[in-house]
Amino acid sequence: MQVIYMHARTEAHAHKHTNAPIHTYIHTYMHACMHACIHTYIHTYIHTYIHTYIHTYIHTYIHTYIHTYIHTYIHTYIHTYIHTYIHTYIHIYIHTYIHTYIHTRKRTHTRTDAHAHTHTNAPIHTYIHTYIHACIHTYIHT
């Protein structure tokens, strides 16, 4: 602004020394002032507005969109993929392990334990408990 103002005064001074009429002097001075004023105002307005717009809107948009996207995507991913993976893996693992366990030599020990329980008239939950206990015990020691 100061530079433009000085430029305006220089031009006006030159006009004065060329014996230009007063309206030329005023016109030049006003033109320079208005130019400086408009330039400063518009520059400040645009800078402030755009900066505020970018900072507020874009930041909000990015923050909201990314947060929502990440939250939704990751949550969905974890819930769907991991849950499915864990569920499938554990299910397959348990199914395979128990199936394998039943059809291997370890079966004899379990059946013997369970058989002993059935001959003592133990309730069914004792039989199941013994079977699971034997499975876990065998798993740990193999």
UniProtKB/TrEMBL annotation:
Highest taxon, organism lineage: Eukaryota
Protein name as it appears in the record: Uncharacterized protein
